[in-house]
Amino acid sequence: MKTRIIVLLVLVLSSTLHAQTLLGDQAEGEAILATMKDFSRALVAGDGAAIAKMYTNDARLFPVDRKILSGQELVQYWAPENVTGVTSHQFFPEEINVMGDTAYDFGYYSGTSTNDAGEVVTWKGKYVVVWKKTPAGWKMYLDSWNRVVDE
């Protein structure tokens, strides 16, 4: 009976935890995770200014079906009028690798938004981010993503 409870507990825990590997400095990896959560909160709040501040001054953005954006183009991409309607957003990092003042992470994201007709739309995709540690904390230097369609 005791073995059965332990096996059940292990199965429940392993099915609720998302596979994630933190390589390098664990505290720095946790700081990056915290910034990712801040990004999701700002996106849902429609706070494009807060999102733009999460990038380095020399950052590059690789949005779907668009050219590489930088500088003021990046700020405009996250302008408040462009980030409205998102009702939920979450990252599911597969790996975060911290190497000194540089890190990368990749994984999946998902979210929901409300379209112009008032309908809830669910979406998901994959991403990769290169991070740089700055005096203000970890910021995104290269940010690329695209949607994933169920096959």
Characterization of this structure:
- Residues 1-19 form the signal peptide.
- This is DUF4440 domain-containing protein.
- Keywords: Signal.
- InterPro entries: DUF4440, NTF2-like_dom_sf.
- Residues 32-140 form the DUF4440 domain.
- The protein is α/β, with parallel strands linked by helices.
- It has one domain (20-147): Nuclear Transport Factor 2, Chain: A.
- Helix content is 31%, strand content 44%.
- It is built from 4 helices and 7 strands.
- The protein has helices at residues 2-16, 26-45, 48-52, 71-77; strands spanning 21-23, 55-62, 69-70, 86-99, 102-114, 120-134, 137-147.
- The protein has a 7-stranded mixed β-sheet, covered by helices on one side.
- β6 and β7 form a beta hairpin.
- The longest helix has 20 residues, at 26-45.
- It starts with a helix and ends with a strand.
List the helices and strands and how they pair.
Layout: H1 2-16, E1 21-23, H2 26-45, H3 48-52, E2 55-62, E3 69-70, H4 71-77, E4 86-99, E5 102-114, E6 120-134, E7 137-147
Parallel strand pairs: 1-4, 2-7
Antiparallel strand pairs: 2-3, 4-5, 5-6, 6-7
Domain DUF4440: 32-140
Signal peptide: 1-19
Pfam families: DUF4440 (PF14534)
